[in-house]
Amino acid sequence: MKLTSHMRKLALGATALSSLALLGTALPAAAAIKGPIKIGVIGEASSVAGAAIINASKLAAENINAHGGINGHKVEVITYDDHSSASDAVSAFKRLATQDKVDAIVGSYMSEVVLALEPWAARLHMPYISPGAASTKIPLQVHEHYNQYKYTFQGWLNSAFLAQSVCDFTKDVFVDKYHMKTTVIMSEDAAWTAPLDATYKKCLPKVGVKVLDEIRFNPDTSDFTPIFNKIEGLHPDFITTGISHVGVRPTVQWHDQQVPLAMTGISSQASTSTFWKDTNGAAEGVLTQTGATPTVAITPKTIPFAKAYAKAYGDSPSYVGYAAYDDVHVIADAIKRANSTNPDKIVSAMEKTDYVGTVGRIQYYGKDSIYAHGLKYGKGLVTGLFIQWQDGKQVAVWPDKLADGKIKFPSFVKLPTATH
Predict the structure, then answer these.
(1) Same structural domain for residues 328 and 406?
(2) Helix (H) or strand (E) holding 227
(3) Where do the H-state alpha helices sit in 71-182?
(4) Alpha carbons 211 and 193: distance in angstroms, whole number
(5) Is 193 within a domain?
(6) Residue 22: which H helix or E strand, with range?
(7) In a 10 Å sphere around its CB, with 0-12 CB exposed, 13-18 middle and 19+ buried, how is residue 400 labelled?
(8) 401 lies in a domain?
(9) Which of 14, 159, 385, 391 could form a Cys-Cys staple with 134, CB 3.0–4.6 A?
(10) Is residue 9 over pLDDT 80?
(11) In total, how many domains does the chain have?
(12) Digit-coded pLDDT (tens) for 81-127
C-alpha cells in the first residue's frame, strides 16, 4: 500500500514519540545525582529523645558537608516536629515527599508513629529510616510485602533483640554475679513492648530466671504504688522493665517507696542526659540498656560525635541521637555508592550497607528474614550496652570490655542472701 503524505507524517511522528519514550524511560536509570541532596527529618521535638533526632541529623549533615558532601553535592536537612502525633507525622512525611522533594527521610522513635508512616513510604516510594522505633511489626511488613514496603528500614534494634540484650546482661550479671533467680516483668502497654515481653518470657528462663508475673500498665498511669505493692508481694529478686514514655513516674515512686528490688531492663528516658534532673536524683541505681554513652568508645566515632553534640546543644544525645546521626550517614553512603537519588537505587544500596557508625557496625537483614531491613544484632555488629545512674552520671557497666565502672545498688535494694 502506498503511503500518503499525511500517513508518512503520522508514521514519522510515531517513530519520534517512540524514540522519546525510550529516552524517557532510560533517563532515571542513567541520571546521576542532581544536588543538593535533601534529607527530611521528623522528630518529637518536645521530648529530649525526639529533639535529639533533629539535632543529631543536623550535625550529620554538617559532618558530611565538611568532608565534601555526597560526590560533591551538599546535604540539606529539612526538619518537622510531629508533636508525638501519628497524624502530624504523616502530614509532615507527605509534605517532605511531595512539596519539599526530599530524597530520603529519617524520623520518629515511636513505633505507633512509624507504623503509620510505613504505608506512606510505600505509596510515595520514599526511602525511610526510623532511628528508634522497635516494634517487630515494622520489619515484618517489609518481609511479607517486600515490593511494596521495601522503602522502610529500622535504624535501631527491634524489640526482640533488645530483650535478648537484656537477657544476656541478666545472665552475665544478675544470675552469675548476684545469684538472682526470679523476676517480674513490668512494661507499659505499647506496640514495642508486646514483642519485648514475649521475648523476655522466652529468654529469661533460658538464662536461669523464673518469671513470676507479667504486668502491663497503661502509659497514662500516674500512681505506681499498687503495682509496686503487687510486685513486692510476689517476692522476686528484681524487676525487668520495658518503659519509654513514663520513665520518670515509676522511677520516682520506686525510689520514694524504697522498693527493695533492683530495677533493670529498658527505661528509654533513663538513657537521656536529663533523667537525673528530671527525677530529682531518684534515678540513682537505675539500670537500662541503651545504644551508647559519651564516655565509651564503642567505635572511633562515638566519643567525637558525643563531644560535638554537647558543644552544639549543651547536653548528650539519647540512644536515638546516636542512631539518627548514623542513619543520615547511612543514607548518604547509599546515595554515594548508587550515584543516584532514584529511590529504588537508594534502597538497593542501603540493603548492601556495611558501615561503622557510632553504635557499632551497621548492616541490615535481607528480605527473606522476618526482620527484613532491621538492624542486625550480634557480636561485631550492634549489641548496645548497659548503663547505671550513679551520683548523677551514666556509668557503663556491661559488657565488661566497654564498662567504665561497676554496679552499685541503692541502700534500700535487698540482694539475695547468697551474695553476702
Answers:
(1) no
(2) helix 225-234
(3) 86-98, 111-124, 137-144, 146-149, 159-169
(4) 16
(5) yes
(6) helix 5-30
(7) exposed
(8) yes
(9) 159
(10) no
(11) 2
(12) 999 999 999 999 999 999 999 999 999 999 999 999 999 999 999 99
Can you tell me whether residue 288 is helix, strand or coil? Answer: strand
* pLDDT tier, 48 (very low <50, low <70, confident <90, very high otherwise): confident
Do 260 and 405 belong to one domain? yes
> Are residues 276 and 388 both part of a single domain?
yes
pTM here is: 0.89
Of the candidates 81, 5, 6, the residue with the CA atom closest to the CA atom of residue 43: 81
Give residue-wise pLDDT tens across range 200-221: 999 999 999 999 999 999 999 9
Separation in Å, CA 43 to CA 88, 215, 258:
11, 30, 36
**What is the dihedral sign for C-alpha 156, 161, 167, 169?**
negative
DSSP collapsed to 3 states, 153-208: EECCCCHHHHHHHHHHHHHHHHHCCCCCCEEEEEEECCCCHHHHHHHHHHHHHHCC
> Can you read off the three cell numbers belonging to residue 226?
499498687
Long-range CB pairs of 208-213 (<8 Å, 24+ gap) are 208/171, 208/175, 208/181, 209/170, 209/174, 209/175, 209/180, 209/181, 209/182, 209/183, 210/181, 210/182, 210/183, 211/182, 211/183, 211/184, 211/185, 212/182, 212/183, 212/184, 212/236, 213/184, 213/185
60: region left, alpha or beta (phi > 0 left; psi from -120 to 50 alpha): alpha
Q: Are residues 100 and 230 in the same domain?
A: no
DSSP state of 242: E
Q: Which phi and psi (to 5°) does residue 334 adopt?
A: -65, -45
Task: Quickly count: other Cβ atoms within 10 Å of residue 96's Cβ.
Answer: 26
Q: What is the Cα gyration radius of the chain?
A: 24
First to last CA, the chain: 105
C-alpha triplet 93, 99, 103: angle, nearest 5°: 65
Tell me the CATH number at 217. Answer: 3.40.50.2300
